[in-house]
Amino acid sequence: MIKAYAKSDVGKIRERNEDAFYISNPLDEVQLYMLADGMGGYNGGEIASKLAIQSARKYIETNFAQIEKDKDSIIQLLGSSIEYANMIVYEKSKENKELEGMGTTLELCLIYNNKAYIGHIGDSRIYRIRKSFIRKLTQDHSYVQKLVKDGEITQEQAEHHPKKNMLMKALGCNAFVEPDVMIKGFLKDDIIVMCSDGLTNLVNQEQIYQVAKGNIEQATKELVQMANDKGGYDNITVMIIKNI
Fold first, then answer.
1. How far apart, in whole angstroms, are the C-alpha atoms of residue 176 and residue 120?
2. How many CB atoms lie within 10 A of CB 29?
3. CA triplet 124, 73, 30: central angle to 5 degrees?
4. First to last CA, the chain
5. What is the enclosing helix (H) or strand (E) of 64?
6. 203-240, pLDDT tens digit by residue?
């Protein structure tokens, strides 16, 4: 059985919350969890994140029954749902001058047969806690992460780099998008943490692990509070999913 909780907060500086999330009903056939962190002037970020989640969700729920339930088919479904959401957000941004350039990160996690099928674009993150280890499953699609990958700076330097929030990839900014898609085991007692960078810019991986391994409903609130206590410079969204 899967249990999931989420908490989203505007933070201390921003006027509106441009993060969005979705948790499916525990009784639904498709166990789907989604998180998006929007960006763009006017209210573009808010529109982009909600639209991305609605579109990807609709695509998956409409097509899941028709596909073979093997790994390749589910991965392909996830990739296609992100491409579809990208098209919807991109076309919306073209309709209205004030929404030009809007975009969003998108994290998808579809749980089926003790596997987590993950889709990722942007710099929101997904972690998995198993026993006494936490592991980041996603790679940030950011300029700074590219510098780390190329060996130009260390991971420690990346944490405080001035261009930390510059994205190399986001959903809805271009006509085509290449998301990361992957399969990870999701066994009994495993925990998945999905979060926007409003959390990870202020709360480190070890702190996330220490809090999330406890009561997961309480942990979502506690992690949001920790980010706010450290400045709350951005919207903060945390989702915790446990296989109990």
1. 15
2. 11
3. 65
4. 5
5. none
6. 999 999 999 999 999 999 999 999 999 999 999 999 99
Residue stretches of the chain with pLDDT short of 50 = none
| pLDDT of amino acid 226 | 98
Superfamily of domain 2-243 in the CATH hierarchy: PPM-type phosphatase domain (3.60.40.10)
Q: What are the structural domain ranges in the chain?
A: 2-243
Structure tokens at 72: 């390749």
Distance of CA 61 to the CA centre of its chain: 19
Q: What is the DSSP string of 158-183?
A: HHT-TTTT-BS--BTSSS----EEEE
Name the CA dihedral angle for 94, 96, 101, 104, rounded to a multiple of 10 degrees: -90
Residue listed under structure tokens 């989640």: 53
pLDDT of residue 111: 96
User: What pLDDT is recorded for position 155?
Assistant: 87
48, two tokens: 């982009």
In the block, residue with structure tokens 């073979």: 68
Sign of the four-CA dihedral 206, 211, 216, 219: negative
